[in-house]
Fold:
Amino acid sequence: MQDCLFCRIGRGEIPASKVYDDELVMAFKDIQPQRPVHILVIPKKHITSLAEATEADTEVLGRMLVVANRIAVDQGSTGGFRSIINTGHIGGQEVMHVHMHIVGGQEPVGPMLKR
Ligand code: AMP
Ligand code: ZN
Structure:
């Protein structure tokens, strides 16, 4: 996936505000933050979406969840956060490389969906 935007960020070819990095995943600030804290966590390997994830992706997807709280607290979302993974057309996924949004701050994020 040479041209995939988030693969390129993962390889350091496109600059991003990196906030976390390990052997499986990295995290960086969303370029258009929706809340005071808005971070994207990505697998370093290309996975198009959760619709394409397989058993072999269990460890990396688990890592994304396990590091989320540490990243949120480090970024100042100390009382919790919301994690969101959009999948496919129905889920509103725009970048076709799995990413988990971590959104938060000092104020509650609000209802999950607009009513
Ligand atoms: P989604 O709608 O779940 O696919 O979210 C894609 C997210 O990627 C949006 O919140 C964008 O603001 C964010 N985004 C797109 N390009 C970049 C970039 N170069 N660096 C950081 N975030 C980005
Ligand atoms: Zn990719």
